[in-house]
Write a structure and sequence with these properties.
- The structure is a single chain.
- The protein has helices at residues 12-33, 35-56, 87-96, 135-151, and strands spanning 4-8, 58-62, 66-69, 72-75, 79-85, 102-104, 113-118, 127-131.
- It is elongated and about 65 Å long.
- It starts with a strand and ends with a helix.
- It has 2 domains: 9-56; 63-151, no CATH class.
- Helix 1 runs antiparallel to helix 2 (35-56).
- It is an alpha+beta fold.
- It has a 4-stranded antiparallel beta sheet. A 4-stranded mixed beta sheet has the order 5-7-8-6.
């Protein structure tokens, strides 16, 4: 059962910048070598740029027993002291925070975050800091998953 799922797609201007730069390059080659070269450059280069942006966008999911952020995952039972980080506090956490903190920060997507303490002595990270567009929903999903795991035998 999935309690929460989110993909951190970039804001529209992040998509526009590489496409604009590729278009300029394609126009330059098109002016020098013809329209066929322009399209031969624009289409594959744009496809590569979109694939790269998609690969760099983060994915957050809270399932039955774990929180998955990108390729990392952790059981929800070891998460404690969850707090929502406002945009004004985020810079302070990034600048002055614990260097062992696991970061999934995509500021091109959002500037709201959720910070959680890890209650596991074997984990090298003391905290996780995750940017999310919906920190209240993510907090509620983690809490609901923790309650569901506590009730089950």
């Amino acid at each position: 059962m999935v309690f929460y799922q989110e993909r951190l797609w970039p804001k529209p201007w992040v998509w526009a910048v590489p496409v604009f730069l590729i278009a300029i390059l394609a126009i330059a080659y098109g002016a020098a070598y013809g329209v066929t070269w322009a399209w031969a450059i624009f289409i594959p280069a744009t496809a590569l740029a979109v694939a790269g942006i998609t690969a760099l966008s983060g994915r957050i999911a809270v399932s039955d027993q774990s929180l998955r952020v990108g390729r990392a995952h952790i059981p929800v039972t070891v998460l404690c002291d969850l707090q929502i980080v406002e945009p004004t506090e985020l810079t302070g956490f990034l600048r002055d925070g614990d260097p062992r903190t696991f970061l999934m920060v995509r500021t091109w997507s959002t500037n709201k975050a959720l910070r959680m303490t890890i209650d596991d002595s074997d984990d090298p990270h003391g905290h996780w800091l995750i940017t999310t567009r919906h920190p209240h929903q993510l907090l509620a999903a983690i809490t609901a998953c923790q309650v569901a795991n506590a009730v089950e035998p």
